[in-house]
Design a protein that fits this description.
Length: about 300
C-alpha cells in the first residue's frame, strides 16, 4: 500500500498516480504499513488525549485563576466601593459641618449687624440731638447777638440823636452868645465913655472875637473871660472820658448818663483809640487787650477847643 503525502489517500501498490489528488506517487507517495499506522494513530490519539488533558488542566487552571482574579477584582471593587461610600459619607459629614459652621457664622454676623445697627442708631440719634441742640444754641446765640446789636444800634442812634440835639443847642447857644457879644460891642462902640474901658481901638473889627461858652442854665460868658471849672469839681464820662460840670447829669459830648460820685476814667484802646468801660479787659471794637492800656489824663481844654 502507498499513502500519498499530499492528500493522505491510501492507494494500491500497483497504482502510479494518486486517486485522491492525481500526483505521481513515486514522487509523493510513501509505503504504508497498517500496524505501524495503527500504532502511529494510537500514539497520535494518546498525544491528542494528553494534549486535551493538558489543555483541560490548563483550562481549569486558567478558569481557576480567572475565578480567583474575578474574586480578587470583586473584593477590590467591594473595597473601592466601601472606600467610596466612606469617602462620600465623610464628605457629606464635612459639608454638613461646614454648612452648620456657616449658618452659625451667618447668625453671629446677623446678630452683630443688628447690634451695630442699634448702636449706630443710638449714636445717630445722639448726634442728631446734639446737632439740633447746637443749632438751637447757635440760633439763640445769633438771636441774642442780633438783639444786642439791635440794642446797640438803637443806643447809638439815641446817642447820635442826643448828640445832634446837643450840637444844635450848642450851636444855637454859641450863635446867641456871639450875637449878644457883638451887640454889647456895638453898644460900647456907640458910647464914647465906654470906648476906652473896652480896650478896643476905634474902627476895630469883630472878626477876631472869641467864641462864647454856654452852660446848662443858658447864660453866656465871653470866651476869654470864661472860667473853666476846677478839675476836682468835674465829673468824667465813663463812655468817652470827657470832663463835665458837677451839675450835669448827662455827658456834654456823647450824651451818656453820668453816674453819681467819683467816676473812673475809661480805658482808651491803644490800637483804635476807642473809649471802653474801665471794667473791660479787651476793646469792644477791635478786641485789643486793654490790660496795659493807661487811663488818659483828663482834657483840661474847653469844649470848643477839643478835637
Amino acid at each position: 500500500m502507498i499513502r500519498c503525502k499530499v492528500c493522505g489517500t491510501i492507494n494500491e501498490s500497483s497504482v502510479v498516480f494518486c486517486g485522491g489528488c492525481g500526483n505521481f506517487l513515486p514522487d509523493v507517495g510513501e509505503p504504508y504499513d497498517e500496524a505501524t499506522e495503527r500504532a502511529r494513530a494510537e500514539a497520535k490519539l494518546a498525544e491528542e488525549a494528553a494534549a486535551q488533558q493538558k489543555a483541560a488542566a490548563e483550562k481549569a487552571a486558567a478558569e481557576k485563576a480567572a475565578a480567583e482574579k474575578a474574586a480578587a477584582d470583586r473584593a477590590e471593587a467591594d473595597r473601592v466601593e466601601a472606600d467610596r461610600v466612606a469617602a462620600e459619607k465623610a464628605e457629606a459629614d464635612r459639608v454638613a459641618a461646614e454648612k452648620a459652621a456657616a449658618d452659625r457664622a451667618v447668625a453671629a454676623l446677623a446678630a452683630a449687624n443688628k447690634t451695630e445697627a442699634r448702636s449706630n442708631a443710638k449714636v445717630a440719634a445722639a448726634a442728631e440731638a446734639e446737632r439740633l441742640a447746637a443749632e438751637q444754641a447757635e440760633a439763640e446765640r445769633l438771636a441774642a447777638e442780633q438783639a444786642a446789636a439791635d440794642e446797640e444800634s438803637l443806643r447809638r442812634a439815641r446817642n447820635e440823636a442826643r448828640r445832634a440835639e446837643r450840637d444844635a443847642e450848642r450851636a444855637a447857644a454859641a450863635k446867641s452868645a456871639r450875637e449878644a457879644y457883638r451887640a454889647a460891642l456895638r453898644a460900647q462902640r456907640g458910647s464914647p465913655e465906654s470906648s476906652g474901658a473896652t480896650g478896643l481901638e476905634p474902627g476895630g473889627s469883630d472878626a477876631a472875637e472869641p467864641e462864647a461858652d454856654a452852660d446848662e442854665s443858658g447864660s453866656v460868658t465871653p470866651g476869654p473871660a470864661a472860667a473853666e471849672p476846677a478839675q476836682d469839681q468835674m465829673r468824667t464820662c465813663a463812655n468817652c472820658g470827657t470832663p463835665n460840670g458837677a451839675a450835669r447829669k448827662f455827658c456834654m459830648k456823647c450824651g451818656q448818663r453820668l453816674p453819681e460820685g467819683e467816676v473812673i476814667p475809661p480805658r482808651i484802646c491803644p490800637n483804635c483809640s476807642t473809649p471802653n468801660n474801665p471794667t473791660r479787659r479787651f476793646c469792644m471794637k477791635c478786641g485789643t487787650s486793654l490790660v496795659e492800656a493807661a487811663t488818659p489824663p483828663p482834657d483840661k481844654n474847653p469844649w470848643w477847643k477839643r478835637s
